[in-house]
Amino acid sequence: MLNTDLHLANAFCNYFATITNSFKFIKLQNCHNYVKNFFQSNPRLNIFTKNKNIGFNLPDFNVDEVIKGLKALTSNSGKGESGIESSILIEAAEALGKPITQLFNLILKSGIYPDEWKCAHITPIFKGGKKSDLGNYRPISILSPISKLFESLISAKIMDYLESNFMLHEAQFAYRKKTSTEHAVLTMTEEWRKKLDLGLDVIALFLDLSKAFDTVDHEILLEKLAYYNFHQKFILLIKSYLQNRSIKVKINDSLSESFPINVGVPQGSVLGPLLFIIYFNDFNFLQTKSMNFLYADDTTMSCFGHHIDLITKEIENDLILVEEWLENNRLLINWKKTQAMHFSSSPRSKNIALNIDFNINIKHHKFISFKKKSIKFVKTFKLLGIIIDNRLNFEDQVISICKKVNSLTCLLTKGSYLFTNKIKPTLFKLFIMNRFEYCGSAWLHSVNEQCLDRLEKCFAKSILRFLKVNIFSLTGKDEFIFLSKFNIIPLKYRLFFHFCTFLFNLFKNNNIFTTKDNNYKKNQCITRNIYSEKHFKTNYGKYSFLTISTKLLNSFISKHLEKENLFSFKKYLRDGYKLVDLFNDSVRFWTE
Predict the structure, then answer these.
(1) Hey, which end of the chain has fewer CB within 10 Å, N or C?
(2) Which are the contacts of 191, defined by CB distance < 8 A and separation ≥ 6?
């Protein structure tokens, strides 16, 4: 009798293993020549290669760090190929610490990565579209917990090496300490706002790369590790880590045959994403006029200027360099998904993104042309889970949030009979509240009163449907007191809390946003305001994060920066009705 699950698992496995086979790449030797010349001729990259005082090689692991790593494993993660559950490793961490440390150090000494750890079990997750199309499924990889532990210990040391020697470009926000998608979106949109406030137009180009993680060439990656002064012994270990990898797909209880993977960095791993940003790092050292913002392979190029045709010409020239770099690193642009957006500083320009093509006349074109390819201009674009619009008012983001919250509330309400009243507030905060907060500091300051009102009504409606309590008639402290019984903070105060703690953390972590371009400049003379408030010309500047956050710093946050940590600052905000009072004192910053 035919096992349909097994047949389907094999079909998926074959598809995922061969998905990049149809891609056409230039000759590998040409790539090596390009990479070598690029590193040797670029003065900023050449510094790393020539500096013989730095280099990376892994010292032996000690028992304490391995035990700490074992205890930090996620208890519900999959078993992977080894069949050992992470809960066993966690419970027996003290007993297993010494033998696992010896095993890890043996791997370092031999330079051989165990083949069993290289096999990923994949679960296909449906993304949307036709269910019969294998391309509409996302592969979720599960590796052995013990291999992920080894990778996490290595990754931490690699990242310390890269960061301490300033090797990673500041444009890359992914997989780094003290950065997040929120930092990426905020830094990018604030740069646009600065330029718009100065009267410049902005064009953003959202590059989409085809299967970027899956097309990383192993030989080129190993070559780049050498340029960043990784020692040969460690490079051989990484070579072993990348070789002989395989995948199996699991459908219900059926596990497919093993299919080899000969290219790319392993997704679902800890080390794979870090290797990717090392591979992609020198992209940021291209001599382009565009300003780049990256989160892993999500790449946004931004150009600014007074004349739209000149901005476009700059982008077209930059694209020549970008495409050359990508081709010689065996990465490909997906032109169908690559889109552009135009932000106009002109108050009379109503929908700037619709009528642009820059080779002849702004009023008669809708595309950027590049080598017989057309890049569409769009009014909205979803980047890192945030819908960006060409007016930077985030109205579409608010609409999207409300739709998601309504859908999730409906789903939870249907199954509410399964949960006790005690657990329901926790579920609400876990599944609903975080939808409102995601990257809130990147868009909260930009939305108008109508959008905020829409969010609050959506919040109240969700509370009513799932928790069966009506807060529509409550305001201010009454709402705060009432919801405190459920350990829930009303939405407007919660968003304010998130904004303040995010800002506090920016300064505590000395984030690049706080130090770049004198964003926050202290007053030299004695004044009630510690930080100099920026002068703005337009609403782009008036309702920027920089403007609002400077006012909040001067209002009360700066007083807590020197003497408190994030935990104590959060405690201060949550003390009694402090959050309500601070919000009422600060709400004028958004509305005045």
Answers:
(1) N
(2) 291, 293, 302
Predicted confidence (pLDDT) per residue in 499-543, tens digit: 999 999 988 887 766 666 667 777 766 667 777 877 888 889 888
- DSSP structure class, residue 533: P
Give the separation between CA 278 and CA 276, rounded to whole angstroms: 5
- Sorted by sequence, the CB contacts under 8 Å of residue 230 that are 6+ apart come out as 55, 56, 57, 238
If one counts every other C-beta atom within 10 angstroms of the C-beta of residue 347, the result is 8
Q: Which has the closest alpha carbon to 51: 222, 229, 223, 221?
A: 229
Locate 309 and state its tokens: 């045709």
Distance in angstroms (rounded) separating the CA atoms of residues 237 and 219: 13
CA distance 78 to 484: 37
What 3-state DSSP class applies to 449? helix
Task: Write out the two tokens for 216.
Answer: 């990383």
pTM comes to 0.90
Q: DSSP H helical segments within 19-42, as ranges? A: 28-41
List of residues 6+ apart from 177 with CB closer than 8 A: 159, 163
Distances from the Cα of 436 to the Cα of 88, 403, 405, 459, 493, angstroms: 37, 11, 8, 9, 12
CB atoms within 10 A of CB 32: 15
Residue with tokens 């890049």, as numbered in its chain: 375
187: left (phi over 0), alpha (psi -120 to 50) or beta: alpha
Give the CA distances from residue 370 to residues 145, 358, 373, 383, 403, in Å, rounded to whole numbers and listed in that order: 46, 11, 5, 23, 37
Tell me which amino acid residue 326 is: L
pLDDT single digits (tens) 311-369: 988 999 999 999 999 999 999 999 999 999 999 887 544 433 333 333 323 343 466 77
Residue (of 320, 344, 324) closest to 332 by Cα position: 324
CB 196 within 8 A of CB 202: yes
Distance, CA of 576 to CA of 582 (rounded, Å): 12
CB 332 within 8 A of CB 210: yes
Q: How would DSSP label each residue in 335-352? A: TTT-EEEEE---TT-S-T
CA distance 234 to 59: 10
